Amino acid sequence: MTATAEAEPDTQQDSTSTNTCFARFINVQKSYDGEQLVVKGFDLDIRKGEFVTLLGPSGSGKTTCLMMMAGFETPTHGDILLKGAPINGLPPHKRGIGMVFQNYALFPHMTVAENLAFPLEVRHLSKAEIQRKVERALAMVRLEGFGDRRPAQLSGGQQQRVALARALVFEPELVLMDEPLGALDKNLREEMQYEIKRIHADLGVTMLYVTHDQTEALTMSDRIAVFNDGVVQQLASPETLYEAPENAFVAYFIGENNRLQGIVTEYSETVCQVQLDNGDRVLAKPVAVSGVGERTTLSLRPERVAIIRGESTGFDNRFSAEVREVTYLGDHLRTRLSVCGSDEFVIKTPNAADHAALRAGDVIDIGWTMQDCRALDA
Amino acid sequence: MSDSPSTPLTTADGVPLKVSLRRAVRQSKLKALLLVAPLLLFLIVAFLMPIGEMLWRSIDNPEVSSSLPRTVVALEQWDGESLPGEPVYAALAEDLKAGQKARSLGLLSSRLNYEMSGMRSAVMGTARRIELIEPPYREALIDINDAWGEIDTWRVIQRESSPYTLSYYLAAVDHQYSPSGDIVAVPDYLQIHGTLFWRTFWMSGVITFLTLLLGYPVAFLLANLPLRHSNLLMILVLLPFWTSLLVRTTTWIAILQSQGVLNDMMVALGVIADEARWQMIHNKTGTIIAMTHILLPFMILPLYSVMKTIPPSYMRAARSLGGRAFLSFRRVYFPLTLPGIAAGGILVFILSIGYYITPALVGGQSGRFITNYIAYHMQTSLNWGLAAAIASILLFVVIVFYLVFNRLVGVDKVKLG
To answer: Which residues form the ABC transmembrane type-1 domain (chain B) (predicted)?
Structure first.
């Protein structure tokens, strides 16, 4: 993971040369009605063997990008390159890209084995070879012996595995997945996430994955492109997205986050002071502000706020807060506070043995460092 | 639960669970029954009873036994080898006298005439003079009409004295009883129903195939266009239903006749000479064209309802897996539409073998269906027994097709609309 994060600047330097990246979107735009852009200038380089996720709320344009890569939608503007060659005019069946669909799209009138054999038959492989590859693919998704069943006789998770096997059986170098786990329940979804990760690691295949589930994206991806409103808000590794969101949308969309609104009153490259709307002053790290007088949203992760007993040490910001509500969540406690003019300020504290029980109405001191408090766009 | 029948489940107060359940659902069952009762009653009176009547009429044979009761009894002892004795003739004279008084011999004479030509005049002629004759009746009757002196006449009367007969069904398939009682084909020049049945079936097959050919792409568009466009297309498909069937059929006459729109256009364009105008109406071509048009919606709608349930991702999956467009269609999409094809096919086929008005109007002599002969026997020849037998055969064929369809596809897989 760290390797990917470090490698990130390289990609940006290398983006002009095509041989390091496997698939590219170059300034791709897409409009369905000629009036609105669904995708506004999408750039993405995918390296060979990488697992890249397009993450965003529904309607943000991420599935459209996937469909353009697969060849089911044509870009209104821009180029899509695969192994250095533009594929804009190439029909879907000549692209050799495996795809897993949201509702699996297993052919209901064929058995599992026939489903898996389909991509091999259209490639005119020999019967023996088809059988060998189908069996290997079934073994890969741990469904040996299920070849004669019909898709309708399988559970959702099993159908998902078959769909995965079918997208991989003809050994494509790139596999696209369109919210493949959306129809599964939570436990199965988590199990399948690890399954897909394992297969990705085993085969070294390049994967482009679309989801609106941030946990899924964080668990599986090498890099995540956060989409909103047809634009990539940030493209980075999971750690970077979580620890260092570049704008308010990413901070809000990835993980939980406290948001405080205010105006920059003092500014330097490394630190700024923000006067909140209720008058409190907070020290923050300037990320998306550039001078005094700008409105900003401060983003602060709930787990980076500490409860201070006695003398404070090393906290740039310290406030007195009133406890509104405590929710017990087993491994941690989620406490809602009234502080800095907000009633929705949340902190998370580990459920440690020495932890004093908080009650609604208690007044406590909380604090956080300037580094953890990021001044983003308003 | 079912593996312990010795201890049936009971509710908390000891009532067996099944009894309790029956009580609980009785009210709702009763309500459901009341809701369908008017329609049920209507169907029984207006649909099931006429069908029963039709089936009954196709084998019903009351004429001989009711008009010649004494003769029938007297003939019971007859050996069928030589002419019957005087008592039989006496009984016949008695019966004819009674029949002439009651003026009830018309049906009998027609009925016997179906079996043996000349019997109408034999019966009616003898009856007119029955008051004048005196015993011995045998000579007197043979004197009036030679038919009474032939063994075959008596064999027919004896055979048809049974209250049921298969002779209508035999006639429907161009067969008859020979005088000696064997089943034989009617002479070639009288064979008409077989040709008509065959023509009805193969033309219905052609019509079904044409509706499929024309309807499949339309149904595909209907199922895959954006809603705004598909709604418009759906209205166009349903538009014919808002026009009278008669109007649609006569429109085809206006278009297809030799001085019609199409021929005029072709002549004007120089495609055909004025003397060589196409004969497209009052023959098989006319029937096929008009009926294909009229039955097209019945193919499109079941196809559409099946295609609507096929998500576009199936074709996309097939394409992404490397299938060319046509191959993906043939291997993935087409097999999934088979229930729709079967449903539309069976619907159009059954409708068209029972179609009457369009072949009657545009079919001419060569494009007529068996249904037109049912109407002929109902209205013109008044041989209702034969009409009922032909109609019963059609009903039987439809039921067979339906059962085969149900076996192969399953009726429950078909949704309309």
So the answer is: 197-405
Q: Does A192 reach chain B within 8 Å, measured CB to CB?
A: no
**pLDDT of A285-316, one tens digit each?**
988 888 888 899 989 998 888 888 777 677 88
Q: Are residues B237 and B372 in the same domain?
A: yes
- Contacting residues of B for A108, CB less than 8 Å apart: 336
Statement to judge: residues B33 and B124 lie in one domain:
no
**Which of A107, A109, A122 lies at the smallest CB-CB distance from B322?**
A122
Is A340 within a domain? yes
Mean pLDDT of chain A: 86
Instruction: Give residue B350's domain range.
Output: 193-413
Q: Is the same domain home to B256 and B137?
A: no
**pLDDT score of B301 more than 80:** yes
Residue A332 pLDDT more than 90? no
Q: Do B317 and A107 touch (CB under 8 A)?
A: yes
Domain extent at residue A226 = 2-96+173-248
Distance from first CA to last CA of chain A, Å, rounded? Answer: 31
For residue B267, what are the CA distances in angstroms to A108, B261, B290? 53, 10, 22
Q: Is there a contact between B283 and B289 (Cβ–Cβ < 8 Å)? A: no
- Listing DSSP states for B185-204 in one string gives EPPGGG--HHHHHHHHHHHH
Q: Are residues B115 and B255 in the same domain?
A: no
pLDDT of residue A312: 67
Taking phi over 0 as left and psi of -120 to 50 as alpha, with beta for the rest, A27 belongs to left
Show which of A248, A272, A301 is a domain's final residue.
A248
Residues of B in contact with A106 (CB under 8 A): 317
Q: Are residues A332 and A262 located together in one domain of the fold?
A: yes
Distance CA A308, CA A353 (A): 17
Mean pLDDT, residues A79-87 taken together: 89
Give contacts of A93 with chain B, Cβ < 8 Å: 319-325, 328
Q: pLDDT tens digit string along B6-32?
A: 566 777 777 788 888 888 889 889 999
From B323's Cα to the closest Cα of chain A, the distance in A is 6
Q: Does the residue B171 lie in any domain?
A: no
Label the pairing between strands A77-82 and A85-86: antiparallel
Measured between CB atoms, does A168 come within 8 Å of chain B? Answer: no
Q: Cβ of B319 and A109 within 8 Å?
A: no
Best mutation target among B314, B319, B320 (most A Cβ atoms within 10 Å) is B320
Model confidence over A215-250: pLDDT tens digits? 899 989 999 999 888 888 999 999 999 888 888 889
What the block records as the tokens of B63 is: 């004429």
> Which positions ≥6 away from B132 have C-beta within 8 Å?
none
Q: Do A99 and B324 touch (CB under 8 A)?
A: no
Residue A247: its pLDDT value, please? 86
